[in-house]
């Protein structure tokens, strides 16, 4: 496919093909491949076996995913001669807890897996973040394989090595950087997602366009229906997203600088998730990011950094695919703005008390803004809340 | 001081001086200093302040150490303008648990410390391993400072970045590699240790001689009394030990190869600790290592790899300083040999089911032995248990 890395090129951002795609995350000795294609779970055992002889694995998944995809994965592992155990956890964000982490760690140790063996995450972001954290701390680091089954996980959380759990102090405040050895993204399994879940993942796809790929964003505006309906656009959009993330991760594995751009929409989004007690009925992560991205563009316009038109265009596209884009789109009451700001300040992207946001000069022109005045954010949010 | 890195040199292994010593652990961007000297805790605040402006810290310690050393440390931090909170945990190996980890993490998050702030471990190996683990996972890695107050921690656990906790499956099976930013080893605080605890730490000092510094081992045989009584030999022995460990860590941070030599005596030792349920009344870590080192030398002799005389010399010296050196020196009954082997096989140094031991060709000539036959180890242990 055609690369679409620099913003203003006139050639098409994306060309279509139906073959399996491979995106490499270049991290020296820790480089790994992301395999993207239809029906890959059936052959996952073979792909995993290729990583090393005699490997054993512990598959971690949740109840929802287990019903749909665990049997074919386990069958493929058995066919490939890989000894495997599995652990099925409750579905949902509450599973990203210390308690579940202890359960996974205990399961892996009880199976006597060694450093060269692997933890396999079969599921969405919750299972991936939790299992990756466990793989990162058992024996101070075991092999780790991601088999993401949600769009969000395929384009975002399964790539880049961030792992973690939530605590009462906030989301993802505890974790490690632990890169996977392989990511297997089966685009066919996304057909089993609810519309709402698919849309939530799409917010992260759009994000890559908004950060630094304006052509990709324009392509998404024209082609999003094919992505949602499972046309060839789906694998292409996932590959472009993975490549976008892989580039940023390769340049800045530990989030010392540029990687922070991936947090576009996330500072507001995380605060909204915290403010709704991570209640997935009210708001899921990608929805928080969608609202957060609109807020980031509108706040940038409020600060005279970007045009109102770009903010409106972002809002329009995300609303068109069915994502929430306004604070008022969240069911139920939100806490006072002071409490929202408090959640923002606890967000781990804080540096020495100053508020750091990802702001933008327009679509595809995001940048890291340090020392954003809290009072301005407060005023801006108050405005957004009045009817 | 004179380096004593290669085995058979004829110059003295160690020369004495009373000044503060600095040993650097060379790890590129993550390099750090170990400060060694008398009364350093009083000035620790100043040394920590030198790491960066506006840093805040959470001091983690235990009840025993808090009574003796927390006040001067906190006073020094306050004098240096460093905002600090502290958490005092129960003393003892049981504190290396998931529950205590959660407590430390919660304490650090509740204080709203950021990535550039630091967790300070004031205590022995338990507090250091636990606090370092917490520092490694809060916000996916915060600054970490070790103020080790036991001999064991000063010469071993505070250097090298290994952190972790125990689980029902074994010791240190869960943790991360997380290097400290500074280690402050106050040799004066060791006067507050019990004889038993000091001796246990001494086992790790002797280990550096046994691995690859035969001159240092000979110097210890002649000078150990000065180390125990607090003479200038003490700081010298600690500096040689830290330098020995720093070299190995710099060459092999993640224990892919040579670093495994530091486990001399530890495979047997950990199995004995597990077999005695980590009951510090019966066996503390350094005592397990002492017995383990004697067993490693005797097993090497049993396998015709080393002379009986060297094994006897090791046993004689460790017994002379008052360390246990025989299985029979452990109070109470040990489980059957099969169970001991089981503990050995769960030890994390296992590779693909084969038993890996650190064996030796003689004093100062340790090496990594893969594929040690379990049946030989079983026979050897059975012999050692018969009266």
From TrEMBL, chains A, B:
Pfam families: DHQ_synthase (PF01761), DHQS_C (PF24621). Residues 201-350 form the 3-dehydroquinate synthase C-terminal domain. The gene is aroB. PANTHER family: 3-DEHYDROQUINATE SYNTHASE, 3-DEHYDROQUINATE SYNTHASE, CHLOROPLASTIC. Belongs to the sugar phosphate cyclases superfamily. Dehydroquinate synthase family. It is found in: Cytoplasm. The keyword Lipoprotein does not apply. This is 3-dehydroquinate synthase. NAD(+) binds at residues 125-129, 149-150, 162, 171.
């Amino acid at each position: 496919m055609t690369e679409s890395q620099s913003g203003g090129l006139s050639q098409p951002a994306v060309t279509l093909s139906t073959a399996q795609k491979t995106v490499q995350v270049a991290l020296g000795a820790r480089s790994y491949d992301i395999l993207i294609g239809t029906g890959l779970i059936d052959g996952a055992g073979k792909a995993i076996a290729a990583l090393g002889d005699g490997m054993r694995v512990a598959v971690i998944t949740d109840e929802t995913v287990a019903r749909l995809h665990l049997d074919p994965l386990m069958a493929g592992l058995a066919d490939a001669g890989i000894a495997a155990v599995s652990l099925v956890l409750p579905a949902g964000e509450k599973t990203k807890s210390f308690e579940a982490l202890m359960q996974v760690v205990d399961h892996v140790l009880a199976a006597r897996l060694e450093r060269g063996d692997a933890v396999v995450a079969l599921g969405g972001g919750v299972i991936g973040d939790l299992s990756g954290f466990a793989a990162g701390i058992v024996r101070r680091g075991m092999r780790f394989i991601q088999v993401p089954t949600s769009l969000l996980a395929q384009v975002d959380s399964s790539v880049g090595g961030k792992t973690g759990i939530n605590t009462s102090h906030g989301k993802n405040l505890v974790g490690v950087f632990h890169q996977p050895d392989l990511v297997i993204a089966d685009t066919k399994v996304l057909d089993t997602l609810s519309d709402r879940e698919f849309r939530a993942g799409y917010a992260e796809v759009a994000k890559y366009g908004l950060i630094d790929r304006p052509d990709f964003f324009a392509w998404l505006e024209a082609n999003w229906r094919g992505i949602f309906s499972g046309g060839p656009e789906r694998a292409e959009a996932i590959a472009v997203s993975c490549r976008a993330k892989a580039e940023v991760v390769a340049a800045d594995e530990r989030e010392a600088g540029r990687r922070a751009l991936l947090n576009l929409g996330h500072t507001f989004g995380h605060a909204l998730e915290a403010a709704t007690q991570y209640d997935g009925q009210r708001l899921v992560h990608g929805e928080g990011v969608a609202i957060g991205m609109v807020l980031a563009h509108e706040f940038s316009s409020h600060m005279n950094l970007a045009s109102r038109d770009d903010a409106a265009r972002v809002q329009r596209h995300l609303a068109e695919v069915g994502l929430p884009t306004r604070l008022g789109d969240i069911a139920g009451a939100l806490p006072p703005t002071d409490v929202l700001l408090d959640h923002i300040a606890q967000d781990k992207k804080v540096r020495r008390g100053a508020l750091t946001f990802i702001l933008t000069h327009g679509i595809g022109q995001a940048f890291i803004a340090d020392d954003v005045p809290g009072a301005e954010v407060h005023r801006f949010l108050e405005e957004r809340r009045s009817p």
